[in-house]
Design goal:
Length: 381
């Protein structure tokens, strides 16, 4: 019999609680806390801190908020929108015949399942532990609960949900950590001899010069994936979540740090044009965007080398190839596209000469018409 005993005393709560979890028996002892509130209820700031303490593996009091952002509500806002959306989405698929929400009903249910998933247990062992805890033998509901909590832990779409468009990852064998490592640890295969990630290669220019639409995603597995016949690219924008996953061993080594570097590459800090564009996109987005995305940092020349990326190298190569192959089609794209300096100057000088020539022709025609009119008036008089 294996036990996992946790003693937690989150800030804002004066009553500590003990969680005694057995993966081979149904013995669970709890003292009531805000984690026992329903998933349907409003998630207060205190509860948010308690939830991230469990799921992110850090004490909220030890969080470091880079820059001047000390607004905890705003900092956690995007993640908990995702949290609520996934609970609703998976929950709609988990109703029993009586109409009651089945299995996962409280935040504590999620935390207990998360603790099981964080251990080196197979999916079958996790399912058995949940079954003992929730007193249910319904396999479909147990599987749905596993998928929900795996998504909340990793922000990766695990398991099928009918309403979703993107293809989910299917975890069937081994433990969850091994599955995630296997998904992201494939070696790069694409040639990158001619790929250079210039300073001008950022998300704003990818869209306004390359004509590649940015699709914001909450699925980390879709990050930097080309979509819609290579006319759009998905970008995972939950930077506040990523910043607190660096020591999460469920991801491959240095995977989170590299993911943050891809974000820094596309959204460099202090780039005023990119910042203005992103804030407008966030304001226009129906679900909002994580504003922490534009405050992470900048990459130096060495860090921008394509070979410094491992997990995301192939997707960066594909994105850069599509970007490099595009040619300006509108005056706006011609104006902003300065990848080829001599060609840019040649185009605008030629356009200026053309405009001046047309103006000169029009002026000459006006003068001829004016002269003819004067002659006509003189003869008439």
């Amino acid at each position: 019999m294996r036990f996992m005993i946790l003693w937690k005393q989150p800030p804002f709560f004066f009553v500590p609680f003990i969680e005694l979890v057995s993966t081979t028996s149904s013995f669970f002892v709890f003292v009531m806390s805000s984690l026992d509130s329903s998933l349907k209820d409003h998630i207060s700031l205190a509860l948010r801190l308690e939830v991230v303490d469990h799921l992110w593996g850090q004490q909220p009091s030890q969080f470091v908020f880079p820059g001047e952002n000390q607004d905890l509500e705003a900092y956690f806002d995007m993640y908990f929108k995702y949290y609520a959306q996934q609970c609703d989405l998976i929950g709609h698929e988990s109703y029993d015949d009586s109409g009651e929400r089945s299995l996962v009903q409280t935040h504590r249910d999620i935390m207990v399942i998360a603790q099981l998933l964080q251990q080196p247990l197979t999916r079958a062992e996790v399912r058995k532990g949940i079954s003992d805890y929730l007193k249910s033998e319904d396999k479909d509901q147990l599987e749905s609960s596993i998928n929900l909590v795996a998504r909340l832990l990793l922000m990766i779409r695990v398991g099928d949900v009918p309403q979703e468009c993107s293809r989910p990852l299917k975890w069937e064998e081994g433990n969850l950590g091994e599955f995630v490592h296997e998904c992201f640890s494939t070696s790069p295969t694409r040639r990158n001899d001619r790929i250079k990630l210039e300073k001008s290669f950022n998300a704003l220019n990818v869209q306004r010069i390359g004509g590649i639409k940015i699709l914001w995603t909450d699925n980390l597995a879709d990050h930097l994936k080309m979509m819609e016949d290579d006319t759009a690219v998905s970008v995972f924008h939950y930077a506040s979540f990523l910043e607190h996953q660096s020591h999460n061993s469920m991801y491959p080594p240095h995977f989170i740090d590299e993911t943050l570097r891809t974000i820094t590459l596309l959204f460099p800090r202090y780039d005023l044009a990119t910042e203005k564009w992103y804030k407008k996109a966030a304001a226009d987005s129906a679900c909002g965007l994580d504003l922490r995305l534009i405050g992470i940092g900048n990459l130096n020349a060495e860090e921008r080398q394509i070979n410094s990326f491992k997990y995301w190298r192939d997707r960066l190569v594909i994105l850069k190839e599509v970007y490099d192959d595009t040619r300006p089609k509108t005056l706006s794209q011609f104006w902003h596209d300065r990848r080829n300096g001599p060609a840019w100057y040649t185009f605008w000088v030629a356009l200026l000469v053309l405009v001046l020539t047309i103006f000169s022709i029009i002026l000459t025609l006006v003068q001829c018409v004016e002269g003819a009119l004067q002659v006509y008036l003189a003869l008439k008089s």
